[in-house]
Amino acid sequence: MSKRLDTKARIDRGRPLTFHWDGRTLPGYAGDTLASALMANNQRVVGRSFKYHRPRGIMSAGVEESGALVTLGDGNRRDPNVRATTQELYQGLVARGQNAWPNVRFDLGGAANLFSRFFAAGFYYKTFMGLPPFEWGRGTGYWMTYEKLIRRAAGMGEATRLPDPDIYDHVHGFCDLLVVGSGPAGVAAARLAAQAGLDVILIEQDFELGGSTLNRAEQATVDLSDTSVRVLTRTTAFGLYDNGVAGLLQRVTDHLSRPPPDQPRQRFWTVRATQTILATGALERSLAFGHNDLPGIMTISAARCYLNRFAVLAGQEITIATCNDSAYGAAVELAQAGAQVRVLESRTLAPQQLSQRALEAGIEIETNTAPLLARGGKSVEQIEVARGDGTAWRAGGVRACDLLLVSGGWSPVVNLQSHRGATPVWSRENACFLPGESDGSLHMAGSAAGIWGTDACVRSGEAAAAAAARTLGRTAPNVDAPRPGGWHHPIQAIYEIRVPGRRLKSFVDFQHDVTSDDVRLAKREGFVSVEHLKRYTTLGMATDQGKMGNIIGLALMAEALGKDIPEVGTTRFRPPYTPISLGALTGRNKARHFRAVRRTPMHDWNRAKNCTMTDAGLWRRPWYAARGEETLQQAYIREATTVRQAVGLCDVTSLGKIAVQGPDATEFLNRIYSNPFAKLAVGKARYGIMLRDDGLVMDDGTTWRLADTDYFMTTTTANAAKVLVWLEELLQLRWPDLKVHVTSVTDQWAACAVAGPKSRQVLEACFENAADVSDDSCPFMGVLQGHLKNGIPCRIARISFSGERAYEIYVPSDYGPALMDLLWAAAEPLAGCLYGLEALGTLRIEKGHVTGAELDGRVTIEDAGLGKMAAKNKSFIGSALRNRPALNDENRPRLVGIFPKDRAETFNGGSILCRPQTLSGHGEGWITGVTHSPTLGHWIGIGFIAGGHHPWSGKTVIAADPLRKGNIEVEIVSPQMVDPEGTRHYG
Amino acid sequence: MTRFSAWSVFCNGLTGQKGWDRQWRDPEPKSGYEVVIVGGGIHGLATACYLARNHGITNIAVLEKGWIGGGNAGRNTTIVRSNYFRPGNREFYEHSLNLWENLSHELNYNVMFSQRSHVSLLHSPAAIDRAARGYNIMRLTGSDGELWSLDALKKNVPHLNYGEDARFPIFGAAVQRRAGTARHDAVAWGYARAADQAGVDIIQNCEVLGVTRDGGEIRSLETSRGTISGRKFGFAVAGNTSRLWQMAGLGALPIETHKLQAFVTEPLKPLLDQVVVFGVGGTHFYMSQSDKGGLVFGGDLDWYKSYAQRGSLPIVQDVAECAVSMMPCLGRIRLVRHWSGAVDMSMDGSFFMCKTPLDNLYLNGGWNYGGFKASPASGWYFADLIANNRPHETIANHDLKRFERGYHIDERGAGPDPKLHG
Amino acid sequence: MIRIPCPFCGERDHSEFTYGGDGSITYPPLGASAKQWHDAVFQRRNIRGLQTETWHHVFGCRAWLRVERDTRTHEIKSVRAAHPGGQRALDKTP
After folding, report:
1. Which of C1, C41, C48 lies nearest to residue B312, judging by beta carbons?
2. pTM to 2 decimals?
3. Any domain includes C28
4. Distance between CA A168 and CA A587 in Å, rounded?
5. Closest Cα partner for B153 from B142, B141, B166?
6. Nearest Cα residue in chain B from A140
7. ipTM of the predicted structure?
8. So what's the architecture of A167-283+410-491 in CATH?
9. Measured between alpha carbons, how far is A758 from A779 in angstroms, rounded to an integer?
10. Of A269, A413, A830, A966, which has fewest CB within 10 angstroms of its CB?
11. What integer is the mean pLDDT of B187-204?
């Protein structure tokens, strides 16, 4: 059994706490982890494995934990898959076992274990396809039935279904040197670098500085407050990216029972470091032997940590199995703490000096001995040992124990270096992967570089810091970097203990239940590449990402193949080093802040006038302005009618606006627009169509000539940013000889369209002098610059999207609401209205004017019915490639109008236009927009059909909409469905 | 070789799993083959399999520079769908989906194709109409497709953000029920096993280092395992197409190599039963839950050309934002791994499967985002092309000359900029 | 994350920029043949290694830059203003 001791440790006995485990209330102390507190309360089974639901205990004391995964919290703060070994205890912490029913101690899912002989690696690829036993059948039905059951049994914890209530912050950091890890190497590095004048950030994933020194009997406190080093604890470097960029996760309140409301739960740091030192330590490996997954089996360093840091003695009758020197210190400390300790030393000779101290502490040492099979129900009770003769193992009797500690060697944490693309190098001498070559901005230090002695680790940290400082042009002392290694007695490279003729269940990946037999099965079936092994057996794919098991799996594969480990390879480590919450990565950019909202200066004005808003890209635009109980449809029909009969106002601020200025502006516009721009007079506006290089339509809009060298271009709302980038690209990359500057002025100008036969009257009322907007001073396509009443500066063009006499009025943004007040005061008495996007759609469909729904990036200027506009006698962007044959096929779909044959009928956008006899295939065309036309008194549509409207005149066409409405008979008409002569907007 | 079945699994359970052999052989390369396929991804393996099964050609080598399925076969987000609507693409991906539906049985390998529905969220009436055009064409060309109302969506996918605080409220969804996910590695292995059974030599750790030409033909390939000659050659190395193309002395291609990241969270009990796609406000995000319980998701390209299979942080943030905005309950869920693959992005977002300037060389590449779902049909049509030396009518326009003709197969209408076709 | 030393603004995250494309392309005159335009618009050498490419400092100074970058490692060798006038001004600045 495990228990709390009275010895000195790093827990705060002055702050006793209580916490809840699976419904029971248990005591602990501030400074405990959940794991140490569970162990102090002798809780052995704390989890269940993924596949066989085998009981899992605490196996480590850190981030590599593969067994003790629990669910923390309740309700909208429920956190599944939390490692008990890294979760700090706090008052009232609520934790539960997971992946088990009814609980982790007694789990009906454990029945899976009974069938485990059938559930070997990859068995699911060989069955569940059809009706058993011979997989009869076709299709996916059988699999999907099995899949439902499999999904329920799989998974680990259960996620909350409620929105996460916590907030997360993003922080951007910069430093000369980022040091990851606060063990002896990291601290030494940070100290020396700071002395050399570097701006240093040191981060530590634990809540205390010290790294491995925290686990020692002699307690020391690391203090860097006398230096300029910026220290972040509870912070993990989860990934290293290009150019010295590191992603950090700082856990701000995860250890608090009542987080202060002004603190985020976590912070996600993006740190740009010129130099980086990874002093990330090394992780102790386990060994593969029979039932090595039983609760009560953990790494030696874990037991040492629980003893010295948390005053928890993890067992009374302890067996330690080792193949290297690192075990002996722990063995002595555990014996001194009162446990009965036995060491199983796999090597022929125990290291003399170390073993002498152990013998003095009353420890029994058996050399040439290793664990073969752990026995026990839900916790280890006995060990069957194996005796070796240097070449093979044979069974060697039974030893009783209640705790088995294992060390299969140490693996430097090279994960972060691997994120940068470095390939680790196998060291036969140290039986581990050492860091590979990395560029001059990344340094490895301490046991992360395979250096085992504390003093050597300090020196390696200093050497790394000195190198970093010199790279940055600082002076630093010359420190020789120590070589990897440092044990007096070489490690014995063993990974698995087995004897001929015995079938043992020896686990390599404890969470995913991957056994050594699975590795050998994978080899037999040809999955010999490390990546195949990983994928076929799922080894290393669990939440610990193979921190405990990967090397063993690799070694077993090498052995099975009769190769050396480096010939088999290593897998690339991927970020994150430890799992990171999506919430932290998201920060504040979620829910309504997911993307910026763009509002026009008239937004509040529109809302006050009862406009319902809609999304147009990032913009919020007026959709319709209902009066009384009007529906959307009633409102837009009234609005469109009002525009045709009187006047309407529409906020069109979201249109892109670009100032095109310079001596070559005319030439520039003439090149980018497909229609002629060379002769546009000052004071005039022109509608223009831009093509892409490939000859298809990019965007359309009007461009106004304000002065000789000064143009004002408008673009569609959707393409505003794209067009500006395009113009800048052309000017800077292709035509640097043109003296033109383009500037986005979208945000500088608010705009309102005033459309309808009474639009001039409205404008007249807005000017001090009505004659300023007479048809002489502002004819069709004319441009005016001046001032409205109250001195509001404005620029106005008489242009029409609705087909009515219309003006677009632009005022500096701050004047937006004042403009609307002025216009509304004039329009309201004339029975005018506000109109929104829906009515705008009606008006433009009636006129056959195209928008983004038609200009979808696949249409030519001819397809859009605008072919006549394209200049014949100039070259422009797209003019070469628009002549390719497939773009000039007579039978291409061209813009048309669509009427329902039965005028009382409706139809839908997105319908496919088909010949009545061919209601299948791709059809002849499609419908892009549908509206009720108040002018015509029935529903109309706009769309495309092969060859345009002429060939279809008088023919019945089917608008096929199998998704919604079925088949509707329609007629194809000219896209100019209302006022094709354009008398209204000229008039 | 043992046929896979519940029975064989049962028998091997009793006998200590001793009855299983290699799933494919590890042969030494011969000096020559009738057909040499470069690329041991799913496309190359499926091509070999269908050359043998449909065309009786078995003297085939599939050359893989690393381990089979190690490229994008093993890096994608495993989504299978056929909701393409451009002529050619529509028929091609539909054929692929049809093959997927019976693939486990065809290969006697459980590729775990789960037809769990592919749900594209729609955020405005205009978006519904736009989606309707494509989904109507799917229906008219014999596929399935439907529009879900908001109520139907809430019932089927309960944990999306339907709240007042959604930046882009959901109006409905376009759904293909026959679409879903499959186990990507299994598809590679299943095709490998089937091809191997038919006599195909799958040669791993065999990198092509040079191409030896004989005028307008390829004579042989110089590889890390010696010279291998062949009568016909097929390139199926998406991500690295340009490299091989240049080794063959063929110059430029309408392809750029970009990187695409993928992500998986810790395993969870069932939370999401469909593939859900979220694309609004300039984003692109797709997510499903694997059978193991991890949420698998992906988003946009990293936006710049790259052969490094290593992702960058801004896209990690971007997909997390999408995930949490789409499903607000995911804030506390943790990402456990993210990785990246190199993809061929083409000038119109559609693939190439065609004859080439060299008489005995055939090209399969330019898969953009579409490679995994395409793989069965890709193998099927590529085998047909190689065996018959003429393109099937379905892929007749998926040639390299289509841009000269002005025939773009552009599902998005994004224009000739490879990075925009993500 | 790539860090791009913008010659006008200093070193910045690549997320401030947008990638343009292959910077080695010379676009033909507007009046050139469809074949010439086809090759410029559609054909790419797609270099694996050091290539010249264009980036736009879209959330910065909005300068288009010509960047030499290794597409295997993302390592940047050089950055210049794409506009020759802009580069001349930089060259003159001590």
Report:
1. C1
2. 0.97
3. no
4. 5
5. B166
6. B101
7. 0.98
8. 3-Layer(bba) Sandwich (3.50)
9. 15
10. A966
11. 98
